[in-house]
Amino acid sequence: MAETPEMVAPNTSEIYHPNASIVEQSNVMAYARRKGIESYDELHKWSLEHNEEFWADMANELEWYSPWEKILDDSNKPFYKWFTGAKTNIIHNAIDRHLKTWRKNKLALIWEGEDGTHRTFSFFALNREVNKIANVLKSMGVKKGDIVTIYMPRIPELMFSMLACAKIGAAHSVVYGGFSEAALADRLADAKSKVLITADGGFMRNKVIELKKIVDEALSRTPTVQTCLVFKRTGHAVDMVQGRDLWMHDLLNLPIANTFCPTEEMDSEDMLFILYTSGTTGKPKGVVHTHGGYQVGTSTTLRYVFDVKDEDRYWCAADPGWITGHSFIVYAPLLCGVTSIMYEGAPNYPYPDRWWQIVARTGVTILYTAPTAIRGLMRFGELWPTRHDLSSLRLLGSVGEPINPEAWKWFYEVIGHKNCPIMDTWWQTETGHFMITPTPVVPLKPGSATKPFLGIEVDVVHEDGSTCAPNEDGLLVIKRPWPGMLRTVLNDPQRYVDNYWSRLDGVYAAGDSARKDEDGYIWVIGRLDDVIKVSGYRLGTAEVESALVSHPAVAEAAAIGLPHEVKGNAIHAFVILRAGFEGNHALEEQLRAHVGHELGPIARPDSITFTPSLPKTRSGKIMRRVLKARALGQPEGDVSTLEE
Ligand code: PRX
């Protein structure tokens, strides 16, 4: 066979250089200058050589009730601890300290409902709302160390409830409002929550999502929950179970809901929240994050990667129910004192220009989203964004999966008008914050998350731990601990050790495959379970999909490997066509040839199915496992995270 792995390597030579004024004014170069360092690469090198000094500098940007004794405690690997001995509470840094400054009157949150309603909260107002909820929780007996489950639509009260838990030292476990009753029940049971915070419902595409009904079903199977606190969003009729369910608007009007509530002093390593990973394979795990290290990691990465400044209006268009929302809608923007935007509804409701309308009307300067959303909006054509003034934008961001160069370029050209660098941030629920990411001073290669962040050491290795050659596929590993890392898996520390630290001795195995090119840029291929071996060559499903999506007829694609007698695996692709194209044999042949042309003959799908939709997790990841099971006529396995 003539094919070689190089034939399927991405185009690693295309580079977009940042303009000089962005570099000059960046937060990260201001830090470099403070350290007497001239270049970003040098700063990265320094941050590894002086890792503790670097993270201590970052921690010193925040306030602590009392100082740490140790920056990193690695006496019980892999159960690393950060800033041990320090007293803190993330709420002190996210809210309390701003109230002592002019930021008290600054907007913390601009919320837009799908129905066009606007609500805005200054840091002062945010503090008031959080305190009231915190006092209600206390009156319900919630104490430091309890885990409160939150199941809410995308309304400000979701964020306030999370912050209220943290304030009084309770951990929150947010279950995404799109999950089914079984998923909610499992998570409630695992966390043994006594209190659940929810709402009557939420709006999505002008339809009422009946959350309370789902809650009622979940609670019939979860005896631990004694109190269910219900916010009113939709106003539709819901059942309220006497002795268990209480309306929040009633409680918030009682004297117990005082607007003053002291912030609980926590140990640096006390639990801040648990978040169940979406789990495209296996049962969801409750990832544990803590107050001290997480606040340092999230604030540092937002400050240097999205370069936030006081004049910014920052919009992370994720759902607060995912790690992206936890870290980069709720905590990091508040820690950095930046104004952020939250939007309740669907990106294309009532028209495909809803997002662009929000950008223009609100003056968004930084927009952080996911490739799946970009591709979704790209489908509707350029006319929708070009109708709006998007000139306020200065930085764009992407997260969640490798971004195909096609979507990257559309985002860069049509949305960013070639003025806005794209921060392609690689990280995970487990990592808490960005790990591999550019900052605005790093030259970009479309489709690569570029290089490890400051203080972070990453490698691409073989199964035996040895470093791969440039452009060779390998396992993505993180070679030293970092402050925002998960501390354990709730109720299952062994799973923490086995899942992340046992595969390769002493390093964190991310579960992704990747390549590092000759310039040290990392190209994440995808989850290891999404790698297809064809004739001995490893192909990322993402690459095949990216090739398909680069064809004008294709809106979205999923590739899986199916057993093949000769090649080991044959690629089978599922394709959603753009409007105006018809799925027929001729087009199938054209697409197969197109992929062959883009990636090399080895990657040409053996067959293609045209489909109107793809099975996805609620976070938008295609569940290839389900496609594969269906194609093979096998049971679909755990589908509790499936969207529909
Ligand atoms: O495979 C990587 C992919 O998403 C995984 C983590 O998923 P989750 O915990 O749901 O967190 C998503 C949001 C942080 C990773 O193992 N992933 C995430 N970001 C990127 C990515 N793959 C490529 N490029 C990215 N920027």
Automatic annotation (TrEMBL):
Entry GO CC: cytosol
SUPFAM superfamilies: Acetyl-CoA synthetase-like (SSF56801)
Domain AMP-binding enzyme C-terminal: start-end pairs: 543-621
Residue ranges of domain AMP-dependent synthetase/ligase in the record: 101-482
Pfam family, one: AMP-binding_C
CDD domains: ACS
Keyword Nucleotide-binding in record: yes
Domain Acetyl-coenzyme A synthetase N-terminal: 40-94
Full protein name: Acetate--CoA ligase
Organism listed in the record: Oscillochloris trichoides DG-6
